[in-house]
Amino acid sequence: MGEVLIRPRREVVRGPLMGDPGALGRFGEYGGRYVPESLIGVCREVEEAFREAWADPAYRGQLDRLLSTYAGRPTPLTPALRLSAELGVTVLLKREDLAHTGSHKINNVLGQALLAKRMGRTRLIAETGAGQHGVATATAAALFGLRATVFMGARDVERQELNVFRMRMLGAEVVPVHSGAQTLKDATSEAMRHWVGAVDEAHYCMGSVLGPAPYPWMVRELQRVIGDEARRQCATELRAAVPDYVVACVGGGSNAAGTFAGFVDTPARLVGVEADGGAGASRGRLGVLHGVRSMFLQDEHGQVAEAHSIAAGLDYPGIGPEHVHLRDLGRARYVSVSDSEVTEAAMRLARTEGIIAALESAHAVAWVLRGQIPAGSTVLITLSGRGDKDLATLKEAL
Ligand SMILES: *Cc1c(COP(=O)(O)O)cnc(C)c1O
């Protein structure tokens, strides 16, 4: 990572951004490893194994090959010509919707499954909300001949019948979680508890840039491929090489982190778009949840609150620690959009470009549609996933 000079509000900070957070896994005052004693050892082991693998050309070569022969990478960069003409800005779409399983999540799970194999693990444990990360994990498990156990809130199991079927079809065991609000937060807690009793055989496959160190860093590195590819593709597509704006939706923040990592050392303005009802960066408060110190939606008693979004993948009450750090430094901004702006953006993209994007991804498009970007600018939007899964929701909303 290049050395960059940035000017946040008060002080000047010099240092590599989006580099290695070191053994403490800290991004400024965020991050860390807040887990029970019984998980400290295995977190360290995962960190050591990943550090070694990431520096090993054999692991990188295997992963690159899987990404191209199995996941469909590189994904295209599509100039959105009609939308650009309508908005008076040049819009480029990074097409993670065209990756296998329909979103960027496959990049992360292939890397972690390959790591699990290397560590001699025979099982993957994962949490899932809408089921997208569960499906990706089940997919990677099938590919590698690993067992997969996916924890899912009982309410989500009911709401996401099709994804539950997909996971089971892929050979995964889906465990409904009946505690708390029976959604993603509870599923994650239960999955981590289960991991405590299975650390020797199971790898915990975290779905976003969350959880205890090394997960926020490891998942960002595994998603960096989005930003690295886009950077090269932009250089071909744009005479100026680097877009003026780089925009991505933020749930936990993995597709945004992977995208930003490719541009953090350029003058591009980085914008993360959250859901109004899941805005950890804008409305969260400092706290510790699922092993990490970051910003979480909380009630007046400091209890973590439920998030609400029309996009199930943005229904997490927190945001990854590195995003909060980037925000504090003034290097990235975080904004939020409403459900109705999102459905409108999904329709507009469908009709101008012939692309039905995931409702999560439509958040990024919705912010660009607000028209706050100066005419003549160039904008890269990461389309994190495809919208097939959201058709029933859209049909109801429109
Ligand atoms: C899961 C998901 C997200 C949110 O996760 P991040 O970690 O914030 O990227 C966004 N888009 C799609 C399509 C998803 O499936």
From TrEMBL:
EC number: 4.2.1.20
Cofactor: pyridoxal 5'-phosphate
Pathway the protein takes part in: Amino-acid biosynthesis; L-tryptophan biosynthesis; L-tryptophan from chorismate: step 5/5
SUPFAM superfamilies in alphabetical order: Tryptophan synthase beta subunit-like PLP-dependent enzymes (SSF53686)
Class in the EC hierarchy, top level: lyase
Signal peptide: none
Keyword vocabulary terms for this entry: Amino-acid biosynthesis, Aromatic amino acid biosynthesis, Lyase, Pyridoxal phosphate, Tryptophan biosynthesis
InterPro entries for the chain: Trp_synth_b_CS, Trp_synth_beta, Trp_synth_beta/beta-like, TrpB-like_PALP, TrpB-like_PALP_sf
HAMAP family noted in UniProt: Trp_synth_beta
Purpose: The beta subunit is responsible for the synthesis of L-tryptophan from indole and L-serine.
Summary of subunit composition and partner proteins: Tetramer of two alpha and two beta chains.
Protein family: Belongs to the TrpB family.
PANTHER family attached to this UniProt entry: TRYPTOPHAN SYNTHASE (PTHR48077:SF3), TRYPTOPHAN SYNTHASE-RELATED (PTHR48077)
Record protein name field: Tryptophan synthase beta chain
Originating organism: Dactylosporangium salmoneum
Gene: trpB_2
